[in-house]
Design brief:
With 267 residues, the chain is mainly alpha-helical. It contains 11 helices and no strands.
Length: 267
């Protein structure tokens, strides 16, 4: 549990760092506040881009956009995957067969190419990005929840509760919840990190909202700047969003693994 607390504190520190840039920092993330491609200084902590917009302010806005998309995607994926996984594992029969077939299809297809096609067809709004990513994120959750539900259904206390007339909702919440809900929470945290990467990938390819501040869009604009790698501009224009993306995703992944180890130890 100590490791989980340390990781939560580290992620809270990251959040506070970007919260300052999104609220109290004197420069905005949309309007120019300095000269073009200024190096990091006391006035602009991470420098400016080619339009004179502060990099730190853009990073801060991108963090909260990425987290909002990640949380919304994780909530949808956990809800859909958890519901279908529990129903498939508990009910069995044809419903289980149909859900398992759908899960196997989604797990076997390459996600990014299909997401690119779907994103290009349905538009670049943030809402479209969330549900597109959620569609491809619920299947792994449903597969694990289904397996756990089938395992718990075979235990004596569940069979005894059924023999005494316990309803499906009562059994799932009362007797299966302690095994299933932590699994949903762990997978939800993992989905947040995956959603951040996928949103950044779509933004880098120009399939996200072009008016929103995104780490992927920042990287795309920086790498498209002519001759950037022959100058020092890449050090404060490309490295910060790449490092922020890696740090956030790795922190979330390690937190998910730590929670998984904690709950396994508790069992």
């Amino acid at each position: 549990m100590k490791k989980v607390i340390i990781l939560c504190a580290a992620f809270a520190a990251i959040t506070l760092f970007f919260l300052y840039g999104a609220t109290l920092y004197p420069h905005g993330s949309r309007l120019p506040s300095g000269a073009s491609l200024e190096a990091p200084s006391a006035l602009h902590l991470l420098g400016t881009d080619n339009l004179g917009v502060d990099i730190y302010a853009q990073l801060s806005s991108g963090f909260f956009r990425s987290m909002a998309i990640g949380l919304a995607t994780a909530a949808l994926a956990a809800l859909l995957g958890g519901l279908l996984g529990i129903m498939a594992g508990y009910l069995g029969g044809r419903f289980d067969t149909a859900v398992s077939f759908l899960i196997n299809i989604l797990l076997s297809v390459p996600q990014l190419p299909i997401m690119i096609v779907v994103g290009a067809f349905f538009g670049q709004s943030t809402g479209n990005i969330i549900w597109i990513i959620a569609i491809f994120s619920w299947a792994p959750i449903a597969k694990q929840v289904r397996a756990k539900t089938r395992s718990v259904c075979g235990t004596r206390y569940v069979q005894l509760a059924e023999s005494y007339g316990g309803g499906a909702l009562y059994i799932i919440v009362r007797h299966m919840g302690r095994d299933i809900f932590p699994l949903l929470a762990i997978n939800g945290i993992a989905v947040i990190g995956m959603a951040i990467i996928q949103e950044s990938s779509l933004a880098y390819l120009g399939l996200s909202d072009p008016l929103a501040k995104s780490w992927g869009l920042m990287i795309s604009k920086a790498t498209a700047f002519s001759g950037i790698f022959f100058t020092d501009f890449w050090k404060w224009w490309i490295l910060p969003p790449v490092f922020s993306l890696m740090l956030s995703v790795v922190c979330l992944r390690i937190l998910a693994r730590a929670l998984e180890s904690y709950f396994i130890k508790e069992r």
